[in-house]
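pinging the channel bc i need a second pair of eyes. not urgent but kinda urgent?? the chain im working w is below, pasted from the shared doc
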Amino acid sequence: MVKRLINTSVATVWTHFDSARDIDKEAIGGNPDITKWINGLSYEKSLDLCNSNLVQTQVLFGEEVLVIEEKEGWAHVICHSQPSSKDTRGYPGWIPSAQLADSNGFNLEGEIAVVTSKKAELVLDGEAALVLCFQTILPVLSQEEDRIKVQTPEGYGWLSRRDAEIYPNPASIPKGNGAGIAAAGEQFVGLPYLWGGVSSFGYDCSGFSYTMAKANGYRISRDAHDQLEDGRAVELDQLQPGDLLYFAYEEGKGAVHHVGIYYGDGKLLHSPKTGKSIEIIPLEGTLYKIELCAARRYGA
């Protein structure tokens, strides 16, 4: 087993090494075009990512994964950054080997830059080379007045200071509160849903809650049913903005299938399902109100 780094804006983690279809070619090359991939998917092809269990999750540029084996140009990996009941080491799945780089010399224990814009340009050799997603984290090499020199899997690059915050180390990222979680999510209203999505190209429901919690300094589980083990339980008549809300089949008595963020004033902020976009809606009078079964809180 060997540690590798994600070397694309975002790498999609597939269920098997042969899960990707012909229509997914834009997502699986060494230089994937995620926007073109998503825009090229019909509703049916996008829904099939879920219904046929093709995609598991995604991981961002610079994140470390553990490679268990390689097969036919694909790497079987464990994603350390995403806790999961599927594997105690992290979320498992398959990534094209071309989207991985060696981790030699990459140091995320010291000063880091965290992308706080929805998307940011990474400049390499004087040219915009890569679009980085919200919450991408890279080591800082030096700082200038208007830009940050960062370490990448391919050497060094530059980020605009307006696109990132700098912290002494990962442990120093400040813990936010519920209001911060709701505010982080609000900026993505209108972004289309993507099954397995954990990037600002598109989120699924739990990828959305996972990332907004991450933006406020909390490392929570990747999937909704696992997230129920995180945070503090909250009575459903005591909700505050930023609480994570969980929804279950059988009018709240069955298996958990959805998570959203309580926006306040009886409203839900969430990434609903394939074919829809992140939205803020009143809970009252919806199926979500009937299926609401639990809430978890982070911060004060």
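so The radius of gyration is 19 Å. and The chain has eight helices and 22 strands. — does that match what u expected or am i reading it wrong
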